[in-house]
C-alpha cells in the first residue's frame, strides 16, 4: 500500500498546498491545470452526491478507480483535503482529520506569519506533514 499525493484547496478552488510521495509519473499537463481539473472533479462529484443523497459536506468521502483511491475531507470553513492512495487503503478519513486539526490548524491557521487564504509556505508544516504521512501504516513503497 502507498500514498501518492495530497492536495489542500480553499473554498474557491485555489490549491493552497500540494505534496507527493510515491507518484510514479506526472499528469502530463501544467500543475495549475492539474489543480483546476482536480478541484472541478471534486466540485462535480460533491454536487452530484449531495443531489442524490440529500447530504451536503459529509455525503462524499471517497471514490476509487481501477488504479487509485481518492479520500476526501471538507471542513466547515470550506477547506478541502484530498489524499490519493493505492487501492489497498480502505479509509484515510482519520488521517485527513489529523492533518487538518493537528497540523494545518495548529501550524498554519494559528501561525501569524502565514497569511490567511494564501499558499502554505510553512517549512514546519511541510516537515511535520511528511513525518506524519511516513508514519502511517499504509505508507510504503509503491507496488509495481
Automatic annotation (TrEMBL):
Record-linked SUPFAM superfamilies: SNARE-like
CDD domains: TRAPPC1_MUM2
Domain of life: Eukaryota
Keyword NADP carried by entry: no
Localization (cell): Endoplasmic reticulum; Golgi apparatus, cis-Golgi network
Role of this protein: May play a role in vesicular transport from endoplasmic reticulum to Golgi.
Protein name per Swiss-Prot or TrEMBL: Trafficking protein particle complex subunit
Annotated GO CC locations: endoplasmic reticulum; Golgi apparatus; TRAPP complex
Keyword Endoplasmic reticulum belongs to the record: yes
Subunit and interaction comment: Part of the multisubunit transport protein particle (TRAPP) complex. The heterodimer TRAPPC6B-TRAPPC3 interacts with TRAPPC1 likely providing a core for TRAPP complex formation.
Keyword field: Endoplasmic reticulum, ER-Golgi transport, Golgi apparatus, Transport
GO biological process: endoplasmic reticulum to Golgi vesicle-mediated transport
Family per similarity comment: Belongs to the TRAPP small subunits family. BET5 subfamily.
